Amino acid sequence: MSHTAWKVLPFVALVTLASACGDDAKPVNAAEYGELLFRDARFSESQFNDFSCATCHATTPTPLNGRMDSGYTLYNVASRPHWWGGYETNLLDAVNFCYVSFMRGVQKLPEDSPQSRALYEYLVSISPDAQAPALPYTVVKDIQEVPRGSLERGQVVYQAACQECHGALHTGEGRLTEMASILPEVTHDYDELFPGIPHSLVVIEKVRHGQFFHIGGNMPAYSLESLSDADMGALLTYLGL
Ligand code: HEC
Ligand code: HEC
Fold it and tell me: Which UniProt keywords apply (predicted)?
């Protein structure tokens, strides 16, 4: 089904939700309900998910506070002609890739549920420009060593890209989920797990592909656009690798 098919389905009922304080029920319109879903990890029913859409996507024209996400800002997303570097030509499919792979949604969001329609209305509400260009998405295929950068830059990159999920270096303090490993201590097992491969290369593989050599994990992958090789090199210096 096309992007248009998802769009034309009307959002019928006003959804009534309990307000944040829990006392009185507060009616919200479709886009508002969609934003609540967007910011709520419980949007995925999986008990193994701690991510919301907002964990990986800003919604402002430029991400605030220098945050460096794996995913693009979704400002104007509904106006883009295609997604995931042209790999997805249907907006709901582009969303479902994230929903299933990263949020462990067991089933794809259907086109016609109130939740899907509300999410769509929200994405449209943050897409004010009728035309927006598709954004490039370059996957680093072959994992190679990168020149190391400065410690100072590495710290900035860690805080902007990794810390929200992984917490503080060495302790994991403040991490989003217990499932996110403590960095760089987790690499201590790599000689056993990945014999003969330099630890830095295993970390580059993980960050670039979100998985180890195509197996396992729900960490998102970082394209070249979301993390340059120069910033990867600085990050490795900060991780002591
Ligand atoms: C764990 C991180 C993560 C989560 C959670 C996540 N995404 Fe994504 N998303 C990505 C990455 C990485 C990409 C690929 C880069 C890109 O295109 O933005 C992406 C791509 C997309 C795209 C395509 C953007 C484009 O122009 O190419 C859409 C749309 C999208 N996500 C919507 C969502 C929605 C809606 C949710 C919640 C249901 C969600 N994502 C949850 C990481 C995530
Ligand atoms: C959206 C949350 C999120 C972000 C952002 C994130 N990670 Fe992860 N990361 C995870 C989770 C969850 C795991 C454990 C599950 C898995 O392996 O995918 C993980 C696992 C890892 C591992 C593998 C640990 C092992 O099992 O050996 C490494 C290495 C890693 N992350 C490095 C990074 C680096 C470096 C960054 C920043 C560029 C980063 N991560 C950003 C969530 C995240």
Answer: Heme, Iron, Metal-binding, Signal
